């Protein structure tokens, strides 16, 4: 079962943190179709947030087609996201890299910014490589 961690200083709405953490658990295979999410009461007890916030997050996940509420039974995962298992060798490599970044004196936000920049750069390159070349009038095709 997923345990939500709320960072009140993040600037991200609490319900969005729950949505994002659920999506991440789905991508990593920590949650699979058929799994039950914690009840709103369990989340409230663990995080001290308003029950309506949990319900808002679960409604958003339901709107996205990721979960379904079953009256009297709870909220269940409908589908998975991605295919990267939590025990992927890439996770180990990334963990070692993050530890080196931290040990070199970088703060969490610095590491996140660096990772995001490299991620954008790498995926922009692969997207450009997949784009067909533009053919203009008069060019031999």
Structure description:
The chain starts with 13 loop residues before the first helix and ends in an 11-residue tail after the last helix. It is built from 5 helices and 2 strands. Strands 1-2 form a two-stranded antiparallel sheet. It is globular. It has helices at residues 14-27, 40-47, 51-63, 89-103, 108-130; strands at residues 67-70, 74-77. A hairpin with a 3-residue loop joins strand 1 and strand 2 (74-77). The mean pLDDT is 87. With 141 residues, the protein is mostly helical.
Could you outline the blueprint of secondary structure elements for this entry?
Blueprint: H1 14-27, H2 40-47, H3 51-63, E1 67-70, E2 74-77, H4 89-103, H5 108-130
Antiparallel strand pairs: 1-2
Number of strands: 2
Calculate the terminal CA-CA distance, rounded to whole Å: 55 Å
Q: Which whole number gives the mean pLDDT?
A: 87
Low-confidence stretches: none
Roughly what percent helix? 40-55%
- So what's the overall shape? globular
Secondary structural class? mainly alpha
Largest sheet: 2 strands, antiparallel
Sheet-strand content, in percent, reads 5-15%
Which strand order spans the largest sheet, edge to edge or round the barrel? 1-2
H/E element sequence: HHHEEHH
The number of helices is 5
Radius of gyration equals 20 Å
